[in-house]
Write a structure and sequence with these properties.
Rossmann fold; 8-stranded mixed β-sheet; 33% helix; alpha/beta; 2,3-Dihydroxybiphenyl 1,2-Dioxygenase, domain 1
Length: 371
């Protein structure tokens, strides 16, 4: 599907502003075939110049491009500072390149909260490549790796010991390393430092201002394998997302609860959730819970589950630190969500993901408590 540029721009604005109509329309669009490339790295590495050079080479090869340039938020207007638009003026007359600058609006991680939706929109619009340029990022600002199919980490000669300082962050998310400004002294040393830390990751030297190394970089992007971000975080000692609870469908709470009490668990909370048409009993189990679910009406989802499958595991619930960002990323990846975030049993905010998107199990994502 191709979009007229004005329509694309209006939809992008709606997504940035969390307009319900725009978000609903986005959910109806079929996924495209775009190669989604994240460009990240410390300030001053030449990311914008590199993105501009990549776009020019892609157009020379007959490819269409969308550029999502994440800029810092202006303290005066609240909008993007638009530095990337100024640097990429040469592309604005080209209908094969769509450029969107988006403000971080206080979000950390090097992206804005709207970025995932914009990436999905550009993919659905039929672009061949979507280039995501982050703000100048630091050690832990690595959200781009969860959106991009491949992630380019741009470094420059003269960093030297800085590679050691940042190795626990953006160094671990690279599908491809770029040594930009490679005509400067120190390029050889930087390449050795990178290779010592990540010997399996390709390294490409570029001089983006002169378009040197850009064709080689594009060849690397075409074959680069995505990085397993969870594996990278494991090396840092992160524990991943905790299981909040296991939801178990039962025909009767009164009949089911005694079994779990004999196991050694105790009910600490019971309630009825009217909009889900379900009676709930919660039994803490270590840092997680067992959540027993009894239908309160014959037309409820739990009642239909019991009729079709009988009592048993209904869903797995994970706690996430930012439910809004998680939802946006899932949508960008084409996942099927069963509801908008809403309040459930225990007062938590949640969303369900259809089993067709998870490998066969209904998944519930819950906003981690800020307390």
């Amino acid at each position: 599907m191709t979009f007229e540029e004005r329509v694309l721009a209006r939809m992008a604005t709606g997504i940035e502003n969390s307009d319900p109509h725009a978000l609903a329309m986005l959910d109806t669009l079929a996924p495209g075939h775009a190669r989604i490339v994240g460009i990240t790295g410390p300030p001053g590495a030449g990311k914008s110049t590199l993105v501009s050079a990549l776009a020019a080479e892609l157009r020379r090869q007959g490819k269409t491009v969308a550029i999502i340039a994440v800029d810092p938020t202006s303290r005066i207007s609240g909008g993007a500072l638009l530095g990337d638009r100024i640097r990429m003026q040469q592309h604005y007359s080209d209908p094969g390149i769509f450029i969107r600058s988006v403000a971080t609006r206080g979000a950390s991680g090097g992206l804005s909260r709207a970025t995932a939706g914009l990436v999905r929109l550009m993919d659905c619009s039929g672009r061949d490549y979507v280039l995501i340029e982050t703000v100048g990022v630091g050690q832990d600002e690595i959200d781009v790796a969860s959106l991009a199919q491949v992630t380019v980490v741009v470094l420059v000669p003269g960093m030297g010991d800085d590679v050691q300082a940042i190795k626990a962050g953006i160094m671990e998310i690279a599908s491809v390393f770029v040594i930009n400004k490679a005509d400067l002294p120190g390029a050889d040393r930087l390449e050795r430092e990178i290779h010592a830390e990540r010997p399996q990751v390709p390294i490409v030297r570029t001089v983006a201002t002169e378009a040197k190394g850009i064709e080689e970089l594009l060849r690397s992007l075409a074959v680069a394998a995505p990085i397993d971000l969870h594996r990278s975080r494991d090396r840092k000692g992160a524990e991943g997302l905790p299981i909040d609870h296991l939801g178990i469908a039962v025909k009767s709470l009164e009949e089911a609860i005694p079994f779990y009490e004999r196991v050694g668990l105790s009910v600490t909370h019971r309630e009825t959730v009217p909009h889900e048409k379900v009676h709930v009993a919660m039994l803490p189990a270590g840092e997680s819970r067992i959540e027993l679910l009894e239908p309160s009406e014959s037309e409820s989802a739990i009642a239909r589950f019991l009729e079709k499958r009988g009592p048993g595991l209904h869903h797995v619930a994970l706690r996430v630190p930012d439910l809004g960002n998680a939802v946006a990323r899932l949508r960008a990846g084409g996942a099927r969500l069963l509801n908008e975030p809403r309040t459930g049993a225990g007062g938590h905010l949640y969303v369900f993901v259809h089993p067709a998107s998870t490998g066969g199990v209904l998944l519930e994502l819950i906003q981690e408590s800020s307390s």
